[in-house]
Design goal:
By secondary structure, the chain is α/β, with parallel strands linked by helices. It has one domain: Rossmann fold. 42% of the residues lie in helices and 16% in strands. It has 5 helices and 5 strands, in the order βαβαβαβααβ. The chain has a 5-stranded parallel beta sheet with strand order 3-2-1-4-5, with helices on both faces. About 4% of the residues have low confidence.
């Protein structure tokens, strides 16, 4: 069924991401797939770079990878079937690039319920769904109200 599943994780909102990786783990168990957790680190505005210590980018990457590895260790999958990565850039763009790199056949995204801001501006989940070359499963919290537009 699936061989490679990619799961975007926002370290700042692990509860939302947990919806996605819980479902991804079940799918990986059923199909024997490998799972990759990805957290995309946001760029610092160019004008702020002179105020950022030189070691910031390395320490940020190390702390994010450590957090992802902690999450991965708790997943009910063999450790050799779970990997983590933390590129730097635009969320949906880096998720789509990683999906291509790893030949993902499924992306599982935990997402908020849509609201006015995502309706007008869009969301990372929407952009991933719109532009992915593989299947995308969007998991939203149960019982959350659906907005009326």
């Amino acid at each position: 069924m699936f061989k490679n599943i990619l799961v975007p994780v926002d370290i700042a909102e692990v509860d939302i991401a947990k919806l996605g990786f819980d479902e991804a783990v079940e799918l990986a168990k059923l199909s024997g797939a490998s799972l990759r957790l990805i957290h995309v680190r946001s760029p610092v505005p160019y004008a702020m770079n002179e105020y950022i210590p030189a070691e910031y980018y390395d320490s940020d990457e190390k702390s994010v990878l450590k957090a992802l590895e902690k999450i991965a260790a708790k997943l009910d999958l063999p450790k050799d079937r779970v990997t983590v990565v933390s590129p730097f850039g635009s969320v949906y763009d880096e998720v789509l690039k990683e999906a291509e790199r790893m030949n993902a056949d499924l992306i599982v995204v935990g997402s908020h319920r849509p609201n006015w801001s995502t309706y007008l501006i869009g969301s990372n989940a929407a952009n991933i769904v719109r532009h992915a070359s593989c299947s995308v499963l969007v998991i939203r919290p149960p019982g959350a109200p659906t907005p009326s537009f």
